[in-house]
Write a structure and sequence with these properties.
The model has no long low-confidence stretch (mean pLDDT 89). The protein has helices at residues 2-20, 27-75. The chain is mostly helical.
């Protein structure tokens, strides 16, 4: 369903983009460019979010490890 929505929004975006760029293409080309642009944009966004997810996971793991090491030093090594 999200691909279909992206393609529908891409069709509208294609129309706006061609007008903003000063191009006056036929409707089929406009729709094709918009849909292709939407698919490229969605894939790029998913890639960027995936990278952000992995960086956030690494940061959370690092913070968790630091907390455990700090607790170990405070509670176990002080004895």
């Amino acid at each position: 369903m999200s691909i279909l929505l992206a393609m529908m929004l891409g069709a509208a975006a294609g129309w706006f983009a061609t007008r903003l760029m000063g191009m006056h293409t036929d409707p089929v080309t406009t729709l094709a460019l918009g849909c292709l642009g939407a698919l490229v944009g969605v894939m790029g966004l998913r890639l960027a979010l995936s990278v952000v997810h992995w960086v956030a996971t690494l940061a959370a793991a690092l913070i968790g490890a630091l907390l455990v090491v700090w607790l170990w030093r405070v509670l176990v090594e002080k004895r």
